[in-house]
Amino acid sequence: MPEPSGPPGPTLAARADSAAVAAETFRDAGVALSAGLRRATHRLRGWAYDAFFHGMHRNRLVYNACWEDPRIDRALLGLGPDSRVVMITSAGCNALDYLLDDPAEIHAVDVNPRQNALLELKLSLLEHASYDDLWQAFGEGRHCGFDAVLGALGPRLSPASAAFWREKRHYLNGRHFKRSFYFHGSSGDVAWVFHAFLLRRGGGLGPGLGELLAARALAAQRRAFDRLEPRLWNGFSEWLVRQPMTLSLLGVPRPQTRLITAEYAGGVTSYVRDKLRHVATQVPMRDNYFWRVYVTGRYTPECRPNYLRPEHFATLRSRAGRVRTHTALLADFLRRHPAPYSHYVLLDHQDWLAAHDPAALAEEWRLILANSRPGTRLLFRSAAPRADFLPAHLSGRVRFQSRELEPLHRQDRVGTYGSLYFGEVL
């Protein structure tokens, strides 16, 4: 028999094994590629969220009203004639509320100059206009004579603030289709969408919401909200709450969204639903001016912040000069203006720092301690149930309370934060 001309070919079993190996290799490669694409997509979405958020904060007014309850703050801070306060400006409402406790000075610091422009305008109205001008602008949310008022106040505002309000006078003069100041700015955009599409254009929520806001007892609030809640949450509202753009417009950075997602079962949607149910059923609505202005675009004489109450106008006018605005990072402010301050109100900005720049967070706390004295009081909030991001070097330097504050925290009229922290420098 003739010799074979070459090596024998692979057996059927060998060929099957080879095919299986190839298939497994391709499958592994596909899994790796899919995972890589998911990671890339996640990073791209994160980058887009951050870019949009920073674009909002660099270029627009974000907060048209403060979303921290000053009644809680003042109960903890114990302000008095010797108090030297450093705080984040936000919309300036709470700086004016603190003035009622007669502090020596308040430094309102914000990296967004538009937030300081808003506080400057409120201070100028207090000092140089009438109570009626102040109420129409920030109580009713529109002032038909605002252009003339601004013309008179302009020279008393900083050049940057005067230029901002000349450009944005339609926020307050009532000539824009949104009609209310509280539907302007990025957080106001979301409020306007809610107001326009859920309350007025077929959402059918107006009567039920009116009943909730008018309730004078918790039992009546619960009955009203039980009827309202099934109509409040639909496909559109749940979709809206989940959108990164919505959260950015509301001033919620991605680190806070991650904190909520990591710590709260059901993620952002469940978090918002539960917080809203708590506020609507467990906290008296009769003086909850935070949610009233958000959904209606105006305050009422019975439900308004203290700075808009006529009985406080003369006091605030006499003390308005104690408030100074600073457009800067908090750390930069402390470098430029070192002093032994007695109180710090940090809002929730440390959530962002902890995720994006832990070194800057540590440096901010170093500067806070360097510009404090024994007994200096510190107040901040977080989206997380536990603020486990605090630098280690605070141990032994600051005595913090959180769990002890829970009963007080649960009566917060805003009700959207995961935790409240109050500390004293040792």
Entry keywords:
426 residues; seven-stranded mixed sheet; 54% helix
Description:
- It is a single chain.
- The protein has 426 residues and is α/β, with parallel strands linked by helices.
- It is 54% helix and 8% strand.
- It contains 20 helices and seven strands.
- The chain has a seven-stranded mixed beta sheet.
- Strand 1, helix 3 and strand 2 form a beta-alpha-beta unit.
- It is globular and about 95 Å long.
- About 2% of the residues have low confidence.
Task: Give the oligomeric state.
Answer: single chain
The rough form would be described as: globular
The helix/strand order is HHEHEHHHHHHHHHHHHHEHEHHEEHE
How much helix, percentage-wise, in residues?
A: 40-55%
Mean pLDDT score, rounded? 86
Please state how the strands of the largest beta sheet are arranged side by side: 3-2-1-4-5-7-6
Radius of gyration: 27 Å
What's a concise summary of this model?
By secondary structure, the protein is of the alpha/beta class.
Helix and strand layout, with pairings?
Elements: H1 12-59, H2 70-77, E1 84-88, H3 93-99, E2 105-110, H4 113-128, H5 131-138, H6 146-153, H7 159-167, H8 185-200, H9 206-214, H10 218-232, H11 235-242, H12 244-249, H13 254-263, H14 267-282, H15 289-296, H16 313-319, E3 323-327, H17 330-336, E4 343-345, H18 349-356, H19 358-370, E5 377-382, E6 398-401, H20 406-409, E7 419-425
Parallel strand pairs: 1-2, 1-4, 2-3, 4-5
Antiparallel strand pairs: 5-7, 6-7
Helix pairs in contact: 4-7, 4-16, 9-10, 10-14, 13-18, 17-19, 18-19
